[in-house]
Amino acid sequence: MLKSLLIENYALIEKLDISFDDGLTIITGETGAGKSILLGALGLILGQRADTRALHNKNSKCIIEGVFRVKDLQMEPLFQENELDYDETTIFRREITPQGKSRAFINDTPVNLNILKLFAERLIDIHSQHQSLMFAHSAFRYDLTDAYAGIMADVIKFRRDFVSLQKEKSKLNELQDQEKQVRAELDYFQFQFDELHKAALVPGEFEEIESELQILNNAGEIRFNLEKADFLLQNSPENILQTLHELINLFKPLENYDKAYAEISSRLHSTEIELKDISSELSGMKQDVADDPAKAGELQRRYDLLQKLLHKHFAQTIEELIEIKDDFFRKIQGAESLEMEIESLSALCHQKEEQLKEVAATLSQKRAKAIPALEKQINSILKELGMPNGRFMVKQTSARELHQHGMDELEFLFSANLGAAPQELAKVASGGELSRLMLAVKSVISLKNLLPTIIFDEIDSGVSGEIGFKMGNILAKIAQNMQVVSVTHLPQVAARGKKHFVVYKHIENQSTKTIVKEVSARDRVHEIAQMLGGENPGPAVLQAAEELFDKQNINKN
């Protein structure tokens, strides 16, 4: 229940702090006085988007604060889910800075607009005269029917599971599209993998082949140079080793005369050892170098193959080629894995869809059971509202496919005249008829105690006379089950209020302000009289206003 509303620096309101009671609260005022400003401000703490143009003083921030009594509404889990402190008296606050920044709070904890909306849906319903157009929206038709049938909790769970299924189906579609693409490329992947796999790639192989080919292709030159080097070292008449040996013998006697001679002798001896070792290796090398055209041709073909593969796959090394081959293999395996994943997800989606169809069938049965009573109750209220021949009807048919509300298609049909077949509301109902029909719907919803507060913004638009009395009675009846705030232009409705506020404009210091004042019990007759007969009502109008209060039994409200 809304206990109070504080508004600072919003539109034409400089500062306003009003308190609300249970029962029926009436808000009246001239057209353009600013009644809609109150609802606009309230909308901000219920999650509507902010606009800096709404600031009364462009240099100060706007503050809207609403105090709600949430005791006995079973909202503790909602507070816990959103990590908010629970209090039986909860404060919603919205601040808008001159720079356009908006902040929202619940019990002084910052929240985003989605959280505000989430709580608002559990606390208050604002019905404007334009909301009658909601009859055209399928979601409203389901919500009304399901609320009356008492299956909202089941529908919410169904909707959550349906959304989950849609996500799974979307994922399945993505995987199937991905599989089509992979399948189209699979032959290419397989061919490339087979070619690389057949090549039996070995890391470092290319460099080894390249080196071996250099030797085989230049075997003659290599062997000639090796043999000549061997000849010069030890086989020529004055070979290097023999000459070096003679040098060593010359320096050996000199070792004892000077350390420098001994050092040269040692170095000559080391050189002899090194040259003998080189000579030995040259002998082995000569044995290894031989013309082998067959082997050279084989290695050249292997070299050409590797060169071709490197060029084809834009690789620099055999290691890169091996990684490319492994990548093709992973893609081939991925296609097989993808197929298994698709089969598994497809089976899961089918299972979930069948389960949801069973739940949808149950929901359909419960709706079918509740619809006759819903129609009867709404039609009964329409008779009270001066539409004795009005006939409201809910047409329930089976849908082709499962949707977020189940397997039903719901249509709201209406006929205002006796003998006329009910048709779509938008085609046959006038504005006044839609207003009365919506009031009947809200009256029925109120009996289910779905929300603690409902606000009607000129629900009586297009209505007057005796129907106004009927509307006032129904609003008062709704107020027995929930808090009702009604913005009205009808004195018949205003007379039924437990509390009455008047909205008017006031000019001060060349500035226009919207003022809201509570009308005390002694002044209400005069206020109603003004609604009946203008700014200066005469005795007859004042008497009519008193009679109106008596007729509406205001003291018993």
Can I get a quick summary?
The protein is an alpha/beta fold and 557 residues long. The protein has helices at residues 35-44, 76-81, 113-123, 138-149, 152-198, 205-217, 219-235, 240-251, 259-288, 293-312, 318-384, 425-428, 431-446, 465-478, 491-494, 521-533, 539-552; strands at 2-10, 13-19, 24-29, 62-69, 89-96, 102-106, 109-111, 124-128, 391-403, 406-415, 423-424, 453-457, 483-487, 499-508, 511-518.
- What is the CATH level 1 assignment of the domain at 1-134 and 450-557? Alpha Beta
Binned strand content: 15-25%
Q: Alpha-carbon distance between the termini? A: 18 Å
Put simply, the count of helices is 17
Q: Which sequence of strands runs across the widest sheet?
A: 2-1-4-5-6-7
Beta strand count: 15
CATH topology of the domain at 1-134 and 450-557, by name, is Rossmann fold
**Overall body shape:** elongated
Q: Percentage of helical residues?
A: 55-70%
Q: Main β-sheet, in a few words?
A: 6 strands, antiparallel
**Uncertain residue segments:** none
Output mean pLDDT: 83
User: What is the level-2 CATH architecture name of the domain at 1-134 and 450-557?
Assistant: 3-Layer(aba) Sandwich
Secondary-structure-derived class: alpha/beta
Radius of gyration: 47 Å
User: CATH superfamily assignment of the domain at 1-134 and 450-557?
Assistant: P-loop containing nucleotide triphosphate hydrolases
